[in-house]
Structures
1.
Amino acid sequence: MTRKHLTNALLAAAIATLHGCASTPVGPPQLDLPVMSQTANSASLDRWWHNFGDPALDKLVDEAIAHNLDLAAAITRVDYARAQVKFAQSDLYPTVDLAVGATRNKSTELGTNALPPGYSPFSNDFRVGLQASYELDLWGKYRTATAAARKDLLATEYARETVRTAVAAQTAQAYFGLVAADAQLALLQDTLKSRDESLNLQRDRLQAGVIGEYDFRTSEAEYLAVASDIAVAKRSVAENESALAVLTGRSPRDVFTPQIDRDQKLAQFTTVPQIPAGLSSDILQRRPDLQQSEAQLAAANMRIDVARADYFPAVSLTGLFGSEAGALKSLFMGPAAIWGIGASLAQPLVGLKAIEANVEAQTARRNELLIDYTKTVQVAFKDVHDALSANQTTREALAAQTERANKLRQALELSDLRYKSGYSPYLEVLDSQRQLLQAQTLQIIAAQNARFALIDLARALGGGWDYTDSIAHR
């Protein structure tokens, strides 16, 4: 390489080094957020499922948090990230190795290199000592890489809390799905009993010639329709039981034959508790998925600086202390001691394009995570918006369905009186029975939907995650 080429290369390296001095901001971007309020009670969200006042639900959620396999996998990912932090930290300290070596050489005995008479052509060399090396972190490359690894660890901890929040919500939804299926099954079984009594009565009336066969066959059809619905309700009960067994991390045997404790009282199921609803001012701190995305973005920003640090020269120190001798018995004698120290500086010249490509790759990765963060915030506020709307409308639907069921219950009593008094045909009674059963079924579904909406609201607001935990204050 000519002097001119060398000068140009050094100049390019200097320019690249100055370019690498720029530090990348690690904070999240400023976004246009809706107006916050304090109407949502943060304390009521930490363990929101307690607001339902159902000890069976509390027990199932605690069991799921303790044994759910998805959560267990998330915990192992935290352990992996913690190990990666230790791995990144290792570059901040010198490496010291114990080096032991033994060699045996033979010299030529021919020509001008012939050995004098009496000298052996064989020679031995034994060496033992400590070798140390250390690269000075003058540009903060390894410190920044360690900080990025800590942000990755933080992100995995927030991801674990995201899974924990999801597991609590899924367990509560499966539980109330089971309770709704129980309520539906109980309603249908009571209805079937009533239909059976009505069918027996109609059979007696048919045999007495009071009614025709049409009315009797219609009663039979209504009885069988309810019997068919019972089979569907039993299937729903079984599926929700097995879902809860999986969520709570039970054994395959227990999943196959699940035993789930729950409250089967329909009257309690149709009452839905209240959680103060509003757009909490600390939602950005409460939701672990937002915190996870922010930590990932910060780590990506730091890795841009790590990539830029490769533009700078690397300064390394080396040291050696040990013993060397031609005979093993002389290895640890005083005259055999050896030592050495050294320093080196390496400035990239030819590989600058590779460094530039790495910086560009890390920048592109950061830009992708920046978009992901923006989208995560967008989805978070959509979740809250939809959950607030659902929480209001499902309660309105439940109130309307409850009132409708009460009115149809009165209508059934009146139609039964009219039929027994001879003022109306039996079809009017059957129609009233169908409408009441439908209204009662819809009332159960409306109560289930109201509880699901409450669960979604608590989850959207970051409920179920203790934001006072130490990971939020690192």
2.
Amino acid sequence: MSIYVFSGPVQSGKSTELLKWCNQRERIMGILMPDILGCRKIFNVKSNEIFDIQCIDATKTAELLITIGKFNFYAAAFEKANLILTDALLEKPDWLLIDEIGYLELDGKGFYHSLVNAAEFYNNNTSYGNLLITVRDSLCEEVISFFELKNSQVIHQLENLK
């Protein structure tokens, strides 16, 4: 029944630490965005499926892309990841993970709708389970305010979780 914001610097190993944390618990669902060999992937925590989200060479694809800064992401991969998050929310896991919330979501893209739905669910004190999102430290307060993450707790180490 809580919202946790796991925050740290860019490229500090938040996703890697989160994956290790997940392996020690049950009834965890959601998505992680690990960097594997220099390319962002989506990892479905429930099924262990991994799929591409980052397009390395935008000139060699006809797929619809979402661009933020120097990065290009497959729009279809975000759609698939958002479906994973929607399905997970319906199952009411002990922990719902969304890795990571950033500039795309603040612009209404990426995992925006999934986080809006999850925040609405977990902001309700009668909700089951916990929401855990990752946010780079430079965007932490902006994300909390923008998504109205009431009574959220910012943590910098996962061992601080119950």
3.
Amino acid sequence: FRLLIPLLVMLFLAIFERIGDYGVTVNRYLVIGMAVGLSVVVLYFTFSRRKDIRLIPVVVFCLAVLACYGPLSAFSFAERSQMNRLDARLRSNDLVVEGKSAETIAVLPEEERRELSSMVDYLLQWHGIDLFDRWFDDATLAAIPNRDDRPNDDLANMFGFDYMGNYGGYWDTDWKSRWFNYSFSHQVLPIAEYDYLIALRFEWSEDQIQSEVHLMGEDSMRILMNRTLAEFAIEPTAERLISERLAFDLTDSLASRMRENEEQQPTPDTLNVLAENDYLRGMLICQAVSGNAGGDSATISVFSGLMLVKRK
């Protein structure tokens, strides 16, 4: 146990260096709690003459109660830390508004906008939009068009700065690539013309290509998503099956909207793609998609939708 003491010191130094830069979040609070609990156990078993293993569950229980209830709970402590941090950063940039939206958008350095946007993202994700009544009255918050969906951009503009996402995909450094997030709740599908309907769900990962295998009658087909090319493809999983892939390319429809700086939500048919080869005919139906696009390229981070396939 004595050998763990220097490691614990390094652990606390690393944690508090991060907190000094970015404040307390729920995750960092829990990491601190685990470090404190581990420290208590290590010091007890190192220096106490009486060693009782029952101390471990007692420490875990006390930390769990502290993290879940009261003003020192993980959510309450992190909420105050991030709100105070955002308020201080807003004031340092002369962006604080009281009750109503800012009238103009300030010109801020990219790194400053990214930092402010990251705080807005965190508070929205973990604590909800009602938390922002510290700066805006209820009527102003209620008037946000997409307050129940993704109000990050609106809140940033209300504070008086341009929103910038926390990772490449909102805007790149050359202002050529822009974040998109589209979803459609209702679509009429022409399923009678097809043999198979396949539900698709792909989420962001480090892998350039993700795949899912689907049974279609007696055949198995692999659906591939090349997220950096915004392309979907059907490929056979056995040599006796169709040898030619069927590809659905979303690049043109996604990138063109960014080139034209199109802000309005597209209609469902805008992002539905038809594809055909000598063996198959298919339609890719987009229900929700997000990623970034610009110029002649697009990258998909999250996609959910349907694929209709017919054998010829």
4.
Amino acid sequence: MLIGLALLLCLASVPCAGGRLGALAELRFRAPGLALAAIAVQVLVISVAPGSGGTAHRIAHLGTYGLIGAFLWANRHVPYLWLVAIGGGLNLVAIIANGGVMPADPGALAAAGVQQPAGEFANSMALAHPRLSFLGDVFAVPSSWPVSNVFSVGDVVLVVAALLALHRLCGSRLA
């Protein structure tokens, strides 16, 4: 939800900078099914059925990064997708180092008011001994805000990449 809102703000910034959102309709992605499959699997394991299949969920979660990687490679001609790959790669490194889960800072989780039911799969959670924790979800939007959540350096890079790509593709003054 948090990243989705950030991406909507990036999109809204385009016409404010004189860009033409209609230019996005001219963009043709190669192999869009790869991205759609990755999103569907992530929604399934994170939101629809988080309480079942521990190891299977972790493997499926990691597999979605392979699908997205293949999609990014197929569309490497699109401006700033290389930066999207870096942001996703930072998240992937942290997830792989922690057995398929993004490590989350307990203080950030508390600040965001994120509750994690025991025994359910979570793509981001506090771990007893996290590896590469600085790449994990260490930042928080406070629980007093409507979109409270935790996020990582990789997430910040992803949003910046989206902002840059949107402005370049739509020909705004910021490009």
